[in-house]
Amino acid sequence: MENILIIGAGGQIGTELTYYLRNKYNAKNIIASDIRATLHSDLMEGGPFIRMDAMDSRQVYQVIQKEKIKQVYFLAAILSAVCEKNPEMAWDINMGCLNSVLRIANELKFKMFVPSSIGAFGNTTPKDKTPQLTIQRPNSIYGVTKVAGELLCDYYHEKYGVDVRGVRFPGIISNVVPPGGGTTDYAVDIFHKAIKYKKYTCYLKEDTYLDMMYMPDALKASVNLMEADYHTLHHHNSYNITAMSFTPKILADEIKKHIPEFTIDYEIDPLRQRIADSWPNSMDDTAARNDWNWSPDFSLEHMTNDMIQILTERFNRKGKDV
Ligand code: SER
């Protein structure tokens, strides 16, 4: 069994990916790392954990060499709304770390997973059934780092043969770790508020379509792509993947089927609305379906049912924070 390093293991995707990989493989081979020294005890004690600053390329090199790492899931990144408040930091973290880990991958020869996002698209991108290969002129610094990251991964793959793979994630919905500062976060927060207060104030307009995905599908996609036969991959990086596309109103209507007294109102945040308006309504993920058999398990109905059941049970048990 190869040793796998997760960089950014304390993040929204990193936390659940760490649990998923520890369950799927041998936990001792899954090395979680994060800049934060205090994270949930399950994450820090359920398998090897290393406190590592992904910006410190010497430390990253030493860890990868010492632990004989053969696969890296690179999940250290800042989400769109936070990036917009500090573009310089966004570039340094989203691009600087990626650049140095790719260089190390070329030298020490390991496989990498690097996620991109719907944020890699912009206003001039076709909005419906957004193709795999299309115009990418994002207007957010997050998007700029995502497009540059996609290109850098392609470059390392084509020029040096680094086996770096990735998907374009839509908004990810989870009931474990809350996201931090994304444009798509309303689709997580709405569940918490629906269960606790029976009402939610949304910062996006009611008719804003965005692609979304439930976390179990996001984890499955990441690992399936890493396990796919190299020769079947025509794109390697930045595969469009999606599971559902909805607006805040459609999601609210779905929640009302479970919580009839639930109400939603709107107070638009211009920053996040501008970002959301520039992203696709729905992506075409045919390339991922054809090349590595991508197919989601969770529809809007199935995801909503699962989220409400899990969060309600937790709320009833704890009585406050869900
Ligand atoms: N979920 C991310 C965000 O909203 C997009 O990939 O920033």
Question: What structural keywords apply?
Answer:
322 residues; alpha/beta; Rossmann fold; UDP-galactose 4-epimerase, domain 1; 2 domains; 6-stranded parallel sheet; 3-stranded parallel sheet; 16 strands; binds serine
| CATH arch. level architecture of the largest domain | 3-Layer(aba) Sandwich
By CATH, the superfamily of the largest domain comes out as NAD(P)-binding Rossmann-like Domain
CATH class of the largest domain, please?
Alpha Beta
Structural class given helices, strands, pairing? alpha/beta
CATH topology of the largest domain: Rossmann fold
Nearest-integer average pLDDT: 96
Give a nutshell description of this structure:
With 322 residues, this protein is of the alpha/beta class.
List the SSEs and their pairings.
Blueprint (H helix, E strand, L loop, with lengths): L2 E5 L4 H13 L5 E5 L6 H5 L3 E3 L5 H10 L2 E6 L5 H6 L1 H22 L2 E3 L2 E2 L10 E3 L10 H20 L3 E2 L1 E3 L1 E3 L12 H12 L1 E4 L7 E5 H13 L11 E2 L3 E3 L1 H9 L6 E4 L3 H9 L3 E2 L2 H7 L7 H19 L4
Parallel strand pairs: 1-2, 1-4, 2-3, 4-5, 5-8, 6-9, 7-16, 9-13, 10-12, 11-15
Antiparallel strand pairs: 12-14
Helix pairs in contact: 1-8, 3-5, 5-6, 7-9, 7-12
Serine binds next to loops.
In words, what does this structure look like?
The protein is an alpha/beta fold and 322 residues long. The chain folds into 2 domains: 3-170 and 215-240, Rossmann fold (3-Layer(aba) Sandwich); 172-212 and 244-283 and 297-318, UDP-galactose 4-epimerase, domain 1 (Alpha-Beta Complex). 45% of the residues lie in helices and 17% in strands. The chain has helices at residues 12-24, 41-45, 57-66, 80-85, 87-108, 141-160, 186-197, 215-227, 248-256, 270-278, 286-292, 300-318, and strands at residues 3-7, 30-34, 49-51, 69-74, 111-113, 116-117, 128-130, 164-165, 167-169, 171-173, 199-202, 210-214, 239-240, 244-246, 263-266, 282-283. The strands form 5 sheets. It has a 6-stranded parallel β-sheet with strand order 3-2-1-4-5-8, with helices on both faces. A 3-stranded parallel β-sheet has the order 6-9-13. Strands 10-12-14 form a 3-stranded mixed β-sheet. Strand 1, helix 1 (12-24) and strand 2 form a beta-alpha-beta unit. Helix 1 crosses helix 8, helix 5 (87-108) packs parallel to helix 6 (141-160) and helix 7 packs parallel to helix 9 (248-256). The longest helix has 22 residues, at 87-108. The protein starts with a strand and ends with a helix. The mean pLDDT is 96. The protein binds serine (SER). The site of serine has 11 residues, from loops.
